Every structure is written in structure tokens, then in C-alpha cells.
């Protein structure tokens, strides 16, 4: 029962027996600790019982059992790294309950294991901005890129917010910012996209037609089935409400998209013709697009697209950038940012402009007073 540890006895050298409170997996308590840090080792079961009652009252007041126990553990048990391991364990439980994705959990556990270990001997209380700056410099010294360092720092912020929310620390430190240079995107024109599509064998072409013409995410296209298709006033439409949860063809399909918002888009005439020729409406709940090996995986999509790009003599661009990004850029140029955001199913135009399109600086020539 929460708030009640077991009083056990440990045999020491010389035959002496000392009591302790067994609160595993959170730890074993061997002494009382007051607000000033004064430590009074247990000598009798009654000493242990008094601490157990204080922990029980704290839990009754709404404090998490782990937090209540933590206050009586030695300072060495309160290091940043040890609390980060506890945070990773809590996130593992959330993943088991389906509240966070396994891919996110894997990334979190890797960051804690590989990078948070720098804080192995640092107490959780008193983390300062200077400490974080020293850590950042150490990360750079190991050759990490700006984007990776920024991701690690964001994960560390999330961890400290968790500790702060549990009232284990009194304040959050100020964090230095990490600037990441904007990555240059390579967009393909409509003609270049069509050249690559023509270089893909017709039976395998369907998912790439779909990606180019709907500008959906690859994880969504891989999960589309006939159950997601409906014809309205003679026009076929597709609903996006599921996506693969991992990069493999054997990965599970989650019942929501990346943004957890469903949306629809019209299906182009050429894509509809392919779906009618190669799709199987008798299996509405099975993903429609299949490679020669079975369901499409993210790696197979990229390899197939890049191989076709090489055959067509078109720049080698990752499939997401060559389809979703390039199509949204073209829609923005031809029909405006609002239409691009509508096709992308973004909540606002700013997201589309920031992450998926770039302004063509050459257009400034049309408003220049004179050309050079």
C-alpha cells in the first residue's frame, strides 16, 4: 500500500542488527533526516516506524511516494543522473499505457544513457546556468552538431520540469540558447517529380503518386487503406486519420496522425486510376500500397525514390522533401500560403511557412528598378 514501507533488519559485521525501511525500487532508508540535514540513524524499530508514519502522511497530503522517500535518502541518491533515470522509468510506464510513442521513449532513453551521465555526481538541487553551459561545451567537444545539442538541451529542460513539478527542486535554472543554422531545402519542380515517377515501375508507383499529389506524410501514406477513401459528387477523397508508428513495414499503425488531427484531401485523377487498377477494395482495412517485399518501410521508400531519381537524372533528394515539401512549395507559389497550409493540414499558415516552404529570392527581380 502506498505510504507504507516494510521494516526489515540488516545484519552488520560483529553480529549487530540494524533496522531499515524497505521502499524498493525507490530505495532503503536507514536514518531520519531533518530539514537542516541532521542525520539520525535508526537504532530501534520505533525509529523506523516514526519515519514511515511521516512518509505515509506526506503521501496522504498528495506527495508522490517516490518523492517522499527521496527526502530520507543520502544525498548521493539525489544526483541529476539518478533522477533522470527515474524520469526515464516514469516515461517507460507512460509508453506502456500508450500515452507517448515508443519512438519518443527510445530517443529519451538514449539521451539519458549517453549524455545525461555527465551529471552523474551533480546534486539535483542547485543546477545552475553555468553548469548547463559547461555541459554544452562538453557536448560540442565530442563533435555533436548544433541540432543534436539543441535536442539534448530540450530533453534536459523537460526532465527538470518534471522534477520541479514533483517539488523536488525549488527552481528551474535559466538555460542558454543554442542557435541552429537553417537547413537548405532542395525542392523539385513538377517536371522533375514527374520524371522520377516515370522512372519507377508502374506497380510500385502508386504510393509515390499519392505522396506527390496529396503532399501527405510518408507515415500516413503507408497506412492508407480503402476504408479511408470516399467518393463525393464523383470526386474521390482520402481521409488521413492513421499513421505508422515506426519506420518498418512491420511497425504498428497508430489510430492518429503526427499532429493527432485528421483531415482529408482530393485524390488526383492519375492516382485514382492507379488505385483502381492495383488496389483491392475487398480488403478495406489493409494498407493499400505495397512494395515488392510487402508493406512499405521508410527506408525502402527513400531507396526506391533515390534510385529512380538517379535513373531520371534528377537531384537526389529524400522522399519527404521531394514530395511533401516540394509540392507544398509549388502550391504556395501558385495558389498562396493559405492553400498550402490547407493541403498540409496545418493549424496555421505560420507553420507551413516556417517548416515547409522557402521564399524564392529571385522574385525580387520583378520589383527591382533595374537589373544588373
Structure, described:
This protein is of the alpha+beta class and 372 residues long. The protein folds into 3 domains: 6-73, no CATH class; 78-165, DNA polymerase, domain 1 (Orthogonal Bundle), CATH 1.10.150; 190-361, Intergrase catalytic core (hpI Integrase, Chain A, Orthogonal Bundle), CATH 1.10.443. Helix content is 44%, strand content 11%. It is built from 14 helices and 12 strands. The protein has helices at 45-60, 65-70, 80-96, 102-114, 129-141, 146-165, 190-198, 206-214, 218-221, 269-278, 298-312, 319-335, 337-344, 349-355; strands at 6-11, 17-22, 28-29, 31-33, 39-41, 229-232, 235-240, 243-244, 253-254, 263-266, 290-291, 294-295. The strands form 5 sheets. Strands 1-2-3 form a 3-stranded antiparallel beta sheet. Strands 6-7-10 form a 3-stranded antiparallel beta sheet, with no helix packed on it. Strand 2 and strand 3 (28-29) form a beta hairpin. The longest helix has 20 residues, at 146-165. The radius of gyration is 28 Å and the shape is elongated.
Compact summary:
With 372 residues, the protein is α+β, with helices and mostly antiparallel strands. 44% of the residues lie in helices and 11% in strands.
